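Regression report. Comparing outputs from two consecutive submissions.

Submission 1:
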Amino acid sequence: MRFIGSAVNRVPGALCRKFNHKASYCYKLPPSVSLQEGAMLEPLCVSLQAVTRAKVGVGHHVFVSGAGPIGLMTAMCAKAAGAATVTITDMVDAKLEKAKEIGADYTLKADMPDLLSALESCIGEKFDMSFECCGVPAALNSCIQATMPGGVVCVVANLPQSIPLDLQVAVRHEVDIIGVYRYCNLYPRALALVSSGKINLKPLISKTFQLEEAQAAFEHFASGEPIKVIIQPSAPEQLV
């Protein structure tokens, strides 16, 4: 498998004005979907894969650890799948505010005292599905402990190769731990969700930079508060 811009596969990225791509991997955007939204279909597919694998459905209560782009999109996909509530945690207040804006029912600081009790008090019980989207080992343990017996923990973020894990809690409560590594054949579904208005990606765009400002774009994103930074290869009037 080759993935554009991946350090693992050593395939050069697409920070350029023109890029030749196989037509079979291209999808035409309808007039209702902007190029900026189209650029975010790729991470949206990761979240859609997670929600699909975890089998989120109508009436489920969902916990998402991490309010970065993937965490917020996972919350969106869970809501679109029919989740009754979505609870999300993060360390950054601005990201929690964004989580409220896109429809999260409950937001909590990840470093608050007795987080597990606070999580359970949100809905009065443990969660049907929990999604680890921040890549912090302790957060994965929180997901396991916050999930009801027979529930599902989906690991979406990249974690260190070896981490301490409360595996016995998962075993004793028969919690299924599953993983997500990218996606397959989900672009049409993701595009349908955006074009129909069931998912609105526009609030996630924090700032747009021109290609010549790429270095500034990366530095802006590294500040920790932006959700999604767009690098635009050409002036708006040149985009077709």
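Submission 2:
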Amino acid sequence: MEAKSSDLKLLGGWFSPFVTRVKIALNIKGLEYENIEEDLNSKSDLLLRSNPVHKKIPVLIHGDKPICESLVIVQYIDEVWSNGPSILPRDAYDRTIARFWGSYIDDKFVVCMKNILMAAGDEEEKKRHLEQLEEEVLVTLEEAFNKCSEGKSFFGGNKVGFIDIAFGSFLPFLRVFEEMNGREILVADKFPELVNWATNFVEDSTVTGTLPEIDKLVLFATALQEKWVAAKVAAK
């Protein structure tokens, strides 16, 4: 199935790693689409109609059908445009494993990153979440890479796949956290395989141009942190 830019619309934001996931999947399939930047301070009627439950980006609109949630969208793209390069493995068990690690990334890695950002002003809490990220989550993902890659460049083998998209889209935010906290997190002496993988990922042709600029993202993350901290204080 081919898609024209008029058939596919992506409601997103330049800053969102969840949106980046969808952009990479679309690139892998070689699909044209209309990119619509949303203002999250004034959400469009199209976004509110397309995702009435969560009212969040990303949303992929295929014709008149909205699809929500980043990893759900990636799987939809892979299934509908099955004639293009595969994103999920062909084998049923391998697909299940890929989905498991996608869920782990959202449930552990993403949550840990958010907790670090929200812990501003509480050094003990921030230290605890940073330790969890470095000593538990990234250690687990290093081990997962060794098993899933089978000695190749990506979690998906020789090419960017589902786990690579799920995790790699957050690499810019990991860099931002390093800058904001004055410490390197993804370092070669602790995570040699992930460091090599990260280099391969950002240089892949399907990823090039999808990742936001770090300096710009630092400003966004700082403003987001201030907003979350203010809301946290107001709730007390």
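Expected: both submissions complete independently.
Actual: both completed, but the second showed a warning that disappeared on reload.
Relevant detail on submission 2: The two ends are 53 Å apart (CA to CA).
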